[in-house]
Amino acid sequence: MMQEIILKLRDVEMSFGTKQVLNGINLDVYKGQIIGYIGPNGAGKSTTLKIMLGLIDGYEGNVELFGEDIASGDVTYKRRIGYVPENADLYDNLTACEYITFVGELYGLTRKEAEDKGLQLLTQFEMEDVFHQRISSFSKGMRQKVLIVSSLIHNPDLIFLDEPLSGLDANSVMVIKDILEELKKRGKTIFYSSHMMDVVERISSRIILLVNGKIAADGTFEELKEQNKEGSLEGIFNQLTGFDAHKETAATFVSIVTGKASDQE
Ligand SMILES: Nc1ncnc2c1ncn2[C@@H]1O[C@H](COP(=O)(O)OP(=O)(O)OP(=O)(O)O)[C@@H](O)[C@H]1O
Hints:
The chain is α/β, with parallel strands linked by helices. The chain has a single domain, classed as Rossmann fold (3-Layer(aba) Sandwich). Helices cover 37% and strands 24% of the residues. The protein contains 9 helices and 10 strands. It has helices at 45-52, 96-106, 111-124, 140-152, 170-185, 197-203, 221-228, 233-240, 246-258; strands spanning 5-16, 19-30, 34-38, 60-65, 68-69, 81-84, 158-162, 189-193, 206-211, 214-219. Strands 6-7-8-3-9-10 form a 6-stranded mixed sheet, with helices on both faces. It has a 4-stranded antiparallel sheet with strand order 2-1-4-5, with helices on one face. Bound molecules: adenosine-5'-triphosphate. Residues 16, 21, 39, 41-47 line the site of adenosine-5'-triphosphate. Residues 7-237 form the ABC transporter domain. This is ABC-2 type transport system ATP-binding protein. Keywords: ATP-binding, Nucleotide-binding. InterPro entries: AAA+_ATPase, ABC_transporter-like_ATP-bd, ABC_transporter-like_CS, P-loop_NTPase.
């Protein structure tokens, strides 16, 4: 049986002014895949995510979600999407409860449904005591948990995560990794962008490496390892992005900081 295509990109290009950021992205993502979307800073990962989410316009090419062209004007597909942004402007003056019910209502839940479900979910992160406190009083990790809960409150089929583990402690990272596994088992499709190579290596059913707005590698971790003769995703990343100067760069950087070459210390 053919697997359902959830996400389809054809010749997607994007420029900001004269700078071309995406140079022809072609991609089919199937139901139940966890895609690890990696690449150097500025490669165009967040830009790709924002195009698929309908947050930025002006791209060339074709983007289909759940078999529908997102440029068709019909935005009902958005109800089936969850999104954890990289930099979220959480509404600091709202309480966790107010924020989560606000997002839940945007996605079509009633206030009561969103509030009940939000409290249940935050309780799993041991945050029930702060449900009615203002987000401005939260630590970075607590804010991140509110974002993760908000992104899943409406039971989306396709989930976009942009560096979702930032600020989370080791125990919470474990829980989130297992949540992603569990969502995958239940047929959810996950598009996961991160720089944490060990996590991407572990959770992804497929890894896509973007370099200069182009897909430079696409396959399972095993396939990438086979092709690149490197043992870790970090090593594969270094090799495919042509970066082997970390030691020299670090030494030069610290020499500038200290005003002395390393052998003068
Ligand atoms: N709104 C914008 N206006 C102008 N240039 C932009 C805009 N958004 C992104 N860019 C540029 O597009 C390029 C790709 O940015 P993008 O945020 O997609 O990279 P990224 O792969 O997500 O990087 P990172 O790993 O650092 O998050 C960068 O050169 C960035 O400066």
